TrEMBL record:
Enzyme kind, highest EC tier: isomerase
Task performed by this protein: PPIases accelerate the folding of proteins. It catalyzes the cis-trans isomerization of proline imidic peptide bonds in oligopeptides.
SUPFAM superfamilies, alphabetized: Cyclophilin-like (SSF50891)
Keyword Repeat belongs to the record: yes
Keywords recorded for this protein, A-Z: Isomerase, Phosphoprotein, Repeat, Rotamase, Signal
Family: Belongs to the cyclophilin-type PPIase family.
Catalytic reaction annotation: [protein]-peptidylproline (omega=180) = [protein]-peptidylproline (omega=0)
Protein name: Peptidyl-prolyl cis-trans isomerase
Single GO MF annotation: peptidyl-prolyl cis-trans isomerase activity
All copies of domain PPIase cyclophilin-type, residue ranges: 42-198
EC number of the protein: 5.2.1.8
Length: 200
């Protein structure tokens, strides 16, 4: 019995070690794409009108400039519209958190800063793990304001969705949001971007 427990503990330690290495590889991958000149933006999140924390994100303007600029301008609201007071309308645990429908708030709408849908700029950035920002769409070249944040590796989305940034800080907030979803995507609570803007 003691030997069995020791083996279980050993395998658990190995699993934790492997997971830590995997997460470090993901972080290193994002850091490799990081640039000091890239804009840094934020979301302040509320869950059922209670403060839940801040998500800080870096945008890959050096790779996907138009996509990153769309997201940045929607964070600042400088075009007269944006993400402020919009919700995360679709959350699938262990997969992704989707938001950005700034017109209908249910996934059927959205609005870009380019007066309509815009093209898939590049698929260079892969969906290698949690914390990646990527554009939601309804097929090729149908990007607007809708986006999602990954909760795990999602390589099946590569070459279909444009990844354009990553979560620099506040992944604990993202994971908390991820726990409030369901298989059908309907959130169990109201998750709102109460404020947003640009830090750098």
């Amino acid at each position: 019995m003691l030997s069995y427990c020791c083996c279980q503990h050993y395998y658990w330690q190995c699993s934790v070690f492997i997971m830590c290495i995997f997460l470090q590889m993901i972080i290193s991958s994002c850091q490799a794409l990081s640039r000091e000149s890239n804009p840094v933006v934020f979301f302040d999140i509320t869950i059922d009108d209670k403060d839940a924390g801040r998500i800080i994100m870096e945008l890959f303007t050096h790779i996907v400039s138009r996509t990153a600029e769309n997201f940045r301008a929607l964070c600042t609201g400088e075009m007269g519209f944006g993400y402020r007071r919009s919700i995360f309308h679709r959350i699938i645990p262990e997969f992704m958190c989707q938001g950005g429908d700034i017109t209908n708030q249910d996934g059927t709408g959205g609005k870009s800063i380019y007066e309509g849908k815009f093209e898939d700029e590049s698929f260079e950035v892969r969906h290698t793990g949690p914390g990646l920002l990527s554009m939601a769409n309804r097929g090729r070249d149908t990007n607007n304001s809708q986006f999602f944040i990954t909760l795990k590796k999602a390589e099946h989305l590569d070459c279909k969705h444009v990844a354009f940034g990553f979560v620099k800080d506040g992944m604990d907030v993202v994971r908390r949001i991820g726990e409030l979803g369901a298989k059908d995507g309907k959130p169990t609570k109201t998750i709102t971007i109460s404020d947003c803007g640009q830090i750098m």
